[in-house]
Amino acid sequence: MTLTAESFDFVATLVRRRSAIQLGVGKEYLVESRLSPLARSAGVADVDAYVHALRRDVTLHDQVVEALTTNETSWFRDLTPFTALRSTVLPELAAAGRTQVRVWSAACSSGQEAYSIAMTVADEFPQLTASITATDLSEQMLVQGRAGRYSQLEVNRGLPAIMLVKHFQRQGATFEISPALRRGVTFRSHNLLDAPPPGGPFDVIFLRNVLIYFDVATKREVLSRVRSVLAPGGTLFLGAAETTIGIDDSWQRIPSAGASVYRTHEKRAA
Ligand SMILES: C[S@@+](CC[C@H](N)C(=O)[O-])C[C@H]1O[C@@H](n2cnc3c(N)ncnc32)[C@H](O)[C@@H]1O
Description:
- The chain is globular.
- By secondary structure, it is of the alpha/beta class.
- The chain is built from eleven helices and ten strands.
- Helix 5 packs across helix 6.
- The model has no long low-confidence stretch (mean pLDDT 95).
- Residues 19-21, 69-73, 77, 107-109, 113, 136-138, 141, 191-193, 208-210, 213, 239 line the site of S-adenosylmethionine.
C-alpha cells in the first residue's frame, strides 16, 4: 500500500466534508483501490502522489468524492418495500381519489430504485400518474439513470423477465427503459447535506442504504430535512439496516410487509 496515514486523513476529511460519508480506520484499502484508477489516469506514480496533487488542485475533489461513493443497487431491492408500496401505500392514495403520486428516490444511484417504483405504479395502479424525482451526489450515476440503459448483468439483478420484456427495448448489448417510464422520472444532482430538491411535497420518499454511511448527527439532520418535504400522511422507506429509532423521535415505524416503513406522528390528512 502506498497511502500514508496523513494522505488517508486528508481524503477522509475531504469526503466527510463534502458528502458526510465516514471513512474510518480500516478503510485505507478502500481509498487505495478506489483512487488507484484516478492516479493512473492522472499519470502520477501512486495514490500518495495523487493525494499530493489533490492538496493543490481543488478541481480534482469532486471526482475523489464520487469515487468513494458506494453505488450498489438492484431492481426491487429487498422486495419488501415494493410489496408495502403495492399493498398499502398506493392503495391508500388511490382510495383517497388521488390521480398523481409524488415520489422522491433519494440517493438513487443508477436509477433502478426509481424505475422499480415507476413500473409498480404503471403496472398495478394505472389510474395514478407517478412523478418521481431521483437524486444522487454522483454525476456518473445520474448520467446512467437519465439514459435508462442497463447491461445484461444489471438487468439480471432483480428484474423479473416479464418486466424486462414489457418495459425495456434491447439495444445491442444493453437494455433501454421505455420512454413512457423515463418521462416520469426526473434525475437531479443533489447532496443530502443541502436543502431538499424541488418536486415536493412528496407522498412517498425512498431514502435507502445511504444513512448507513453517515454519523448520527448527520442522520438526524437528513431525516429532519426529509420530514420538511414529506406530505402530511406521507411514507418514508429506509433500508433494511436503517432506522429512525434513537435518532429522530418524530417518526413511527409502521408494520407493513416487513419493510422499514415510517410515518410522522402528525395526524394524517383527510
Ligand atoms: C448504496 S447506494 C443506494 C442506492 C439505492 N437507494 C438503493 O438502496 O439501492 C448509495 C448512494 O448514495 C449516494 N450518496 C452518498 N452520499 C450522498 C450524499 N451526501 N448526498 C446524496 N447522495 C449520496 C451514493 O452516490 C450512492 O449512489
